[in-house]
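Quick start: read one record
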Amino acid sequence: MKFEAVTIKDIAKALGLSTSTVSRALRDSYEISPETKKLVLDYAEKINYQPNPIALSLKERRSHSIGVIVSEIANSFFSQVIDGIESVAYRNGYNVIISQTRESYEREVINLNYLTSRSIDGLIVSVSAETSDFSIFKELYDRGMPIVFFDRIVPELNTHKVVVDSYRGAYDATVHLIRNGYKQIAALNSNPVLSITKDRLAGYLAALADHGLKEKNDLIKYCPHAGLLPAEMEEAMGQLLSGKSRPDAILALSDKLTTGCLRTLKARKIKVPEEIALIGFSNSDLTELIDPPLSIIKQPAFEMGKLATNSLLQLIESKRPVTEFTTTTLAPQLIIRESSGQRKGAS
């Protein structure tokens, strides 16, 4: 049996009233007597009547729903961002529709087309690892769709953005490894087109240069799908471990890359940190329970979600066109644990 939502017509038929009377009663119109209003409202509550959101959006030109696009909902960073988004959205009477790209540009476009066809009021987006063509975002932006980017942003679009100081996070983590005696530090990166990859790699390279260590191309590897595909991780790690400049430490520049790197090292029976130290970006609560406990660069994900949503609601609810935009940059937290301990033999 096909599910059919209760409509105003159903209430009118059950109570022997006209649909216009029921509609006015539900809207608390002065034209309807208190007795009729009570009759309609009591019955509506009894049958759990919910107004049709599509009909309301057509009438009010607003659906009170926002779309959110992330690469992977199961990723601890993105799940914490979503918690922050929902905490603000629901408090302000907005529903949240979440979709994931699985790092696919094609899925990102499909998700965007679906969400915007549902009359959402705005979008919060972290672009997929595959995305290098931002034309669909520009088209939506030019048509007046409120969009806020977080984490992985589209720099050329003039709108609100919420990011973490990825440069500083990678720089500080690399300096920590250098001070612990490591000299052959590898960087395991996401897709080079991503804004966060560029910033994090720049921080890593600056730290090497500031401490007199030479950049080595064979110690810099990329996973185009940010560690989501195990085969890419295996290939990148295989190249690092078999190269002439075998690393004594690895800086992993995304959540999936960090845990994937440790998994690969354990599978190859390489001891951490005795043979290769490891530190990386991660928001997982389990990193302190892993053996060895992982050193991480943690991002304020929940706060990012809250700030992105407040920025989007400002765009949606502004009575006048918004012409001034902000990029909010939050500080990451460097958490030192056993996986990046002092290099064996270092003073």
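Residues 129 and 225 are 6 Å apart (CA to CA).
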